[in-house]
Amino acid sequence: MSASRAPLPTGSHRTTGPAETEALAARVAAALAPGDVVLLAGDLGAGKTTFVRGAARALGVSSAVTSPTFTIGQRYDGDLPVSHLDLYRLGDLADEDPALLADYLGPDRVAFIEWPQTAIPLLEELGMTVAARVRLEHAGGDAREITVEAA
Length: 151
Ligand code: ADP
Ligand code: MG
Hints:
Layout: E1 11-15, H1 18-29, E2 36-41, H2 48-58, E3 73-77, E4 81-86, H3 99-102, E5 110-114, H4 120-123, E6 129-138, E7 144-150
């Protein structure tokens, strides 16, 4: 991350394979500041985790970025701390302990959240703001339609 941030690449983008999705994600990452959250929407297999991998790489994360499977998230050391959450299996957070998320979210880090609905109401009190919403859709074969919106 540099002192002068790039503008968010808003709008609709078509990628033809995982590498292009990762490259787009790197452009999104370049626009992020500490405390920013990127919300990811899209069906299973649409490429949400692939997108996070590209973004994390661009943020200086060198370890492997994979789907959190037995936990709600992963934390990585990059140029700044990076979190990746997948809340697909998490029920209604109102019935869970919101402190679960506190391990992964905070004003000093950047976070990417797949299936974020239950976390959205808690972001502000954890010192984070939604910087971008990304929607990934299958567009035939390895093509994906990826829409980036500033929040
Ligand atoms: P999700 O997290 O949305 O379930 P993943 O990123 O885990 O999706 O999986 C996406 C799968 O689709 C991966 O196997 C990836 O290699 C493949 N893929 C093929 N084309 C693309 C593309 N254009 N963008 C992202 N992933 C793609
Ligand atoms: Mg995933």
